[in-house]
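User: What would this chain look like folded?
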Amino acid sequence: MSKVTILNDEAIEKVLDMKQVIAAVEQVYTLKSSGKADLFPMIFHEFERGKADMDIKSGYIKEENVFGLKQVSWFGDNSKVGLPQLFGTTVIFDSTTGSPIGILNSGYITGMRTGAAGAIGAKYLARKNSENLLIVGAGHQATFQIAASLIALDNIKTVRIYDPINYDIAKKLSISIKKVLTDKFLSEFKNDAKLYKVMCNKFNVEFEAVPDIKEAVGLSDVIITVTPARKPLLMKEWLKKGTHLSCVGADMEGKQEIDETIFGIARVFVDDINQAVNVGETEIPIKKGVLLVSDIIAEIGDVINGKVSGRTSDDDITIYDTTGIALQDLLTSKIALDIANEKGLGVVVDL
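Assistant: Here's the prediction, encoded as structure tokens.
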């Protein structure tokens, strides 16, 4: 038998903060770039097209002595029977013995690490003086993207929010977001008075819901797309020089959020080349011949490690295609487990 810690979302929220998760996601990108972490092939299965599917992402982080997997299932009709549409579970193993050490609900961790990923793309690829952020998609993930971006970027003054389905959702988020940021993401800095003051200033920006995406794109320095779209929501001719795009929503074959021709004029970076060309935003441009796999500049870990240059001029249009990799979940989960065990949170069982 081995002792396994089980953590639900409530426990995980008590031990994770966004600054910590951003650092963890950066770390796994650099470990992957340095050959100290491995991804295993992704498994995807549709039980019923457009109604029910599942995927498994897994990997191994040598430096942390852990391997594991995250399994996510989506059953669209669950709401009819009073169940969530989405279930996610992460299982962590000790790589020195193979024994399981943790089972975690992956909902909150996925939100946090996905927000961190979009922001890291902007941190390393956007112009340093970027002031205008556009979030495309006002669903659950938008809050994490906004929080992470304001923490990671230094000069944002305006955050515009556009929702392709319902403007009212964007409007409600623009009104409520300051309180959410203060309640959920600012408290983590209270132990450092100087840093807390800095973060208060960073979060004190203008939030605006926008009904016209074309106009909003033209005003934006950084754009983060986080929708389930299967047709482009923004077009190449709307972009101004120097724009950065973090494409977050495309994580399955056939999904597409931006005009594929943008890839023909952009410096393109990804979190994992294999995943990006098969299920990411990069998939469609490659299938349509706009982009070759060899045109991808690098994985983001190579930029962070200094192996390749990200932005080469203020006029560059840059794209970061993040499909989400298991290493993000594994390290974030390991951090949550370590802190929870120190604080006596969660349930420990003999398995």
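The mean pLDDT is 95. If you want, I can go into more detail on any region.
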